Amino acid sequence: MANDKVRLGIIGLGNMGSGHAKNIAAGKCPEIELAAAADIAPEKLEAARGYMPEGVRLFSTAEEMLDSGLMEAAIVAVPHYDHPRYVIRCLEAGIHVMCEKPAGVYTKQVREMNAAAAAHPDTVFGMMFNQRTNHIYRKLRELVRSGRYGEIRRTNWLITSWFRSQKYYDSGAWRASWRGEGGGVLLNQCPHQLDLWQWICGLPVRVDAHLSYGKWHDIEVEDDVSAYVEYANGATGVFITSTGDAGGTNRFEIQLDGAKLVATEDSLRLWEYRPSTPEFEKINTEAWNSPEIVEVPVETDGQNPQHVGVLNAFAARILRGEPLVASGEEGIRGLTLSNAMHLSSWLGRPVEIPFDEELYWQELSKRIAVSRLKG
Amino acid sequence: MANDKVRLGIIGLGNMGSGHAKNIAAGKCPEIELAAAADIAPEKLEAARGYMPEGVRLFSTAEEMLDSGLMEAAIVAVPHYDHPRYVIRCLEAGIHVMCEKPAGVYTKQVREMNAAAAAHPDTVFGMMFNQRTNHIYRKLRELVRSGRYGEIRRTNWLITSWFRSQKYYDSGAWRASWRGEGGGVLLNQCPHQLDLWQWICGLPVRVDAHLSYGKWHDIEVEDDVSAYVEYANGATGVFITSTGDAGGTNRFEIQLDGAKLVATEDSLRLWEYRPSTPEFEKINTEAWNSPEIVEVPVETDGQNPQHVGVLNAFAARILRGEPLVASGEEGIRGLTLSNAMHLSSWLGRPVEIPFDEELYWQELSKRIAVSRLKG
Predict the structure, then answer these.
(1) Confidence (pTM)
(2) Residues β-bridged to residue B57
(3) pLDDT given for residue B3 in this prediction
(4) Which of A164, B52, B312, B317 is an S-S bond match for A243, by CB 3.0 to 4.6 Å?
(5) Interface test with B, best of A156, A171, A205, A229 (most B CBs within 10 A)
(6) Interface confidence: ipTM more than 0.90
(7) Which among A159, A146, A139 is positioned nearest to A302, based on CA atoms?
(8) Does residue A1 surpass a pLDDT of 50?
(9) Contact across the interface for A287 and B165, Cβ inside 8 Å
């Protein structure tokens, strides 16, 4: 029965697209039926015959697949620049669509995508922010946004655990070029953390970023980032990332009026201040005194369903109107952060959010104009 | 016999000066004989009668004490602005001198102090960088500077464990004012970390700092700092500090070509990369590959003699020419970092090191001119 399962097509069979196909083929998404897939590269289609379930129709263009009538939903897993184009194509055809991260390369094009989504409110549009399914970040967000610990004062994310070798960058001519990817670690590796950062702490109002381009690798784009941000309430933040540190770190600390939270790859720790700092200052009478600091164990649900969780929520939304992990329209928020970091680096000065999106596109275009694909 | 012990006078009997007196009185510095002390505040002298050993002469001015002929060495533990003045007075009188941190408030005045030291090479001049005696930082420096792990790529010090209450700031009219202290957390709390940072990693060549003044407290000076630096070899660094976080963090990470080191308040961890990243890139043939990361236990000598260790080394230098913990002339290095951070914040742009020291003094003078002592 058509209404039991969502018939899905996958646009793009690279690392992500083929990974989704394999998960579905392995039965991890019981409400999704893999109906079709498309890739313009004949060798990707050839490889697909090896892992696709019987009966999945393969197409050499997305357009043919979308016109085939075989599916009511699609995953867009093509190179970054083409995300908005295919999402819009799906939305306009009434095909529910899940977009791989990042939402696009520059916010200007993503605004067009979001406008199409607004024009098709009945077509489901989700973003593949699989890290939002991680119990650590879900719990972190819940604690921060509960209001129980007052306002955020400081955020600090050291996320350098994104090591990539030169051979990785050499493995695709489009990789790490302005023309092919439109950015480096901020566009390819960090969209998850940039999304989580804003999802948990909100968007800052000002960004001052120092980026290095081709610092650790022979590539055009940034592979090292130190960004400082300011939030509307006066809180500050720092975001450090790189693909050059072999043994990098993932440590996200949030200071609040009444607590400190530290999330790492596999742990979440909470220290409560008793009383919160503002309350303490109201009653304290001693020069050498401070709130009591008490570490409190944090319990999470331990669930971390990642890509499969995002896809199952997508199917449940289509079938029963249940909540998405991340709506497609939210993709622009993390991209706003990375665009602001690039723009600050290019202009050599702090950038306010919202920034001049036309200027961003002009600056990016200059770099695309002289960009050279490898090989 | 005069040569068995160093007869010492203490200039200034505030928290630090009285602390040193108590340590010596308790027999922790067997080669130092407390001979005299001076303070201009009658209540400090009165209090001193309670903890000073018998026979220690008390003076109401440093000048009288220095002219008394009672001692051959002195500790300068007066407010920051007066450090260079009293150190120079000692050096010119041939009195060995130990200066409390910071070396001074602005590098211009510290250069005069260092010139006096150069003119009196036989008079011992030490700086109270007691954190250099900490086994964790000594070992960290040894590992970094051994060359075994190649060059530094990234330094990251989150040192927000300097909480201070409003009552602390209210406890002295001079505290946290431009006129009284000439700076906030960078001048009063962080000189140790700024010294250790440069002692271990060297001085950067460029500083871009965001400081907030009176953000968490009713004070004139900075109580919140986010600074980004660049080193001559292209490495980058971040230094975050504050006196506003009740449960702050002390976590210092150094990324090298061949290792990661993380020092906290009470631990030092080392991860070796096998091989180092540059060596790995020469031989790697796989896109998805990275050096092996092996955590290696670090053994330190466990010693952490702090102020007493600095004073005992000072006495041993005077008596037998043994090494100081920190020579006085090195005090300018950490101060260079803090002055550069202030100047970057005041000018709203990155500052190169060496910076314009006359400009720094002018900018500080503007703030002193409108500064108001409390109470």
Answers:
(1) 0.97
(2) B36
(3) 63
(4) A164
(5) A156
(6) yes
(7) A139
(8) no
(9) yes
